[in-house]
Amino acid sequence: MAGKKVLIVYAHQEPRSFNGSLKDVAVAELSRQGCTVAVSDLYAMDFEPRATRKDITGALSSPEFFSYGVEAYEACKKRSLTSDIIAEQKKVQEADLVMFQFPLYWFSVPAVLKGWMDRVLCQGFAFDIPGFYDDGLLKGKLAILSITTGGPADMYCKTGVSGDFRYFLWPLQHGTLHFCGFKVLAPHISFAPEFASEEERKGMVASWAQRLKTIWNEEPIPCSPPWYFGQ
């Protein structure tokens, strides 16, 4: 939709990968709609995943005993976080929609993306206490996960060996994104692209592009335990 701003946080090492294709088609389709699209290509940026005292550029508020959460909160208020964190926070702040594109690692995100969440979504920027879940500081924004899996769809159902895919979405969509106030759109999961034919992969990319045509009309999921675990 013209005038909307989108941030794609992208975590894959290979530009020609299936994840790369999903990211590229999202950039193309959203740009075609007149959106402004920014991409944080975390591996290409060599993004630092570790939350350390180097993230605070000024004096520590409690130098004798280091608490990352406390120091990041104080530094956020004083604008003395390190420049790479501030740059990412600015992109998030400007975005109407934040999209995460990544392959599933151990039912979760790759380490570089986990580090992005740990460092960028700090207290004072993404949430406060009080100021979380429906009152999170990023309320009014949309978020969506676009994930690729190694295993086929039937592995990720209630009776499948991996359980329902919604179980592993709980910490990401609810415990992270909803906690920070995002309204969460239904995830887009591309199952087992490595085992699909070239034709099938093209179809998976096309279905993502097709969904993005009407993404601004979608209603967020009811991000609460029943959506994940049933009644």
TrEMBL record:
- What is the official name of this protein in its record? Ribosyldihydronicotinamide dehydrogenase [quinone]
Share what the entry says about its subunit structure, partners included.
Homodimer.
**Major place of localization?**
cytoplasm
Q: What does this protein do?
A: The enzyme apparently serves as a quinone reductase in connection with conjugation reactions of hydroquinones involved in detoxification pathways as well as in biosynthetic processes such as the vitamin K-dependent gamma-carboxylation of glutamate residues in prothrombin synthesis.
Q: Where in the cell is it found?
A: Cytoplasm
Which residue range or ranges hold the Flavodoxin-like fold domain? 4-212
GO cellular component labels: cytosol
- EC number(s) on record? 1.10.5.1
Which interval of the chain is the signal sequence?
Answer: none
Family indicated by similarity: Belongs to the NAD(P)H dehydrogenase (quinone) family.
